[in-house]
Amino acid sequence: MNIIRTTSAMTDWSRRLHREGVTIGFVPTMGALHEGHRALIRAARLACDAVVVSIFVNPTQFGPAEDLAKYPRQLRLDRALCAKEGVDAIFAPPAEAMYPAGFQTIVAVPTLARLWEGAARPHHFQGVATVVTKLLSLVQPDISWFGQKDFQQAALVRRLAKDLHLPGMLRVHPTVRERDGLALSSRNVYLSAQQREAAPVLYRALQAGAAAIRGGERRGERIQRLMAQTVKAQRSVTAEYLAVCDPSTLELLPILQRHAILLGAIRVGSVRLLDNMPVAIRRKP
Amino acid sequence: MNIIRTTSAMTDWSRRLHREGVTIGFVPTMGALHEGHRALIRAARLACDAVVVSIFVNPTQFGPAEDLAKYPRQLRLDRALCAKEGVDAIFAPPAEAMYPAGFQTIVAVPTLARLWEGAARPHHFQGVATVVTKLLSLVQPDISWFGQKDFQQAALVRRLAKDLHLPGMLRVHPTVRERDGLALSSRNVYLSAQQREAAPVLYRALQAGAAAIRGGERRGERIQRLMAQTVKAQRSVTAEYLAVCDPSTLELLPILQRHAILLGAIRVGSVRLLDNMPVAIRRKP
Hints:
The structure is a homodimer.
Chain A: E1 2-4, H1 7-19, E2 24-29, H2 35-47, E3 50-55, H3 75-84, E4 89-91, H4 95-98, E5 106-108, H5 110-114, H6 117-120, H7 124-139, E6 143-147, H8 151-164, E7 169-173, H9 193-198, H10 201-214, H11 220-232, E8 237-245, E9 259-268, E10 271-280
Parallel strand pairs in A: 1-4, 2-3, 2-6, 3-4, 6-7
Antiparallel strand pairs in A: 8-9, 9-10
């Protein structure tokens, strides 16, 4: 397994493989790999000849008051997981290689970036869009994988890649969960035992929303209220948003028609957790 | 010669050539091709196996009060010039192919875009940066050519391509001039006979600045004043800026050290004309 540290070595690796007709699968990560990442890597391993995983805690997507410094870093464990899954290369550049002196270019997807996570984290998605543009240009993958847990990020990357004609196809892989429904996230390590016990309420709220829709409810506001009630019952948790949205624009859906995405964010102590659930309405025969 | 109209056909063409080991030279243009473009095409023809010229009057780089609608369009003449120069493909997409419904991504190079042309045309360089990112991603050239006449644009594209790791190398080709020094530009067709006669004063002003530097002048402000005086002598012309700048940051140089770029923009009636002149100071032996 190659450990690639420079952008020029990354470009060279990718170019050499493409010249040999090898297809490249790409899994961009911030490290602290868990079973959710493992699922993406396995999907890439099945679909492509070669797999590259990037491990880069991108500073530009963290706000000044956020957890950049304490974001979990564990390159040795991550390397072991990648090696075990048959990854061909890890791209782990230092921040100075990605953002050298004089760097100033910004990529923004303004409409999608204003909503939900963007409202709470004003510069977050500009940082995501910029680093994803850079990574896809460097790696030149045939297919890239993103996790569905960060649904808004996946929607934004889809828009970005289409708008800028970035290389390769995108695939979004279903969320991997703990037994009690908690979506896997590198930030779950921040939870105390008590917080960990409270955290699955977000999943239960989304389930309650989905159940109501299966039961015939079509009014977005009603479904949202129901999800909010579920979260409210768990005293140590605060809902940031629980919303019924259009799956591509992420705008609120007052009345459900065909497809919807239930989006949620809660705060457990100082930890923000995200989750979501796609819903498709079957028309009556 | 292929005429390519869709983004997917452009990607396919480029991918097929790369698979065959063919190198691609790229000349992005807004059409209305003149001898300046011909020089870029010939340079590409010499350096690469295949040459693609894009002809796209990019709406996002024009302000609401600017000349988008009347910008010269002459696809038949442009095709003839390209065919004569041995161009392999023209990429001439309709605006809807480049900016389909839902398009929202923006690429910005904020520091460079605020200066000079950016001060006069607030959204211009954001439009340029966005379309160049899209074109380079679509065409995947080995080398792209830009004209030196638009020096700030070339500097900004260089920064952009480096920051986002866009494919291929960039080359900047010297400005082609009329006999009286006027830099070739598609906008020169807007000039009346009288305005055409007055227009070369910009070149003469830059020459006066360069001559002063050769004569030992090192104070940026003095050189600027000298250039301004030259333009002032031509009554029908107004100087927008005449500046002595650092060639990579384009910031004003109070004292010249080694390299400088003289940048100028004038208004002749309603026509804005640009020109520039690079200067290198030889150290005394």
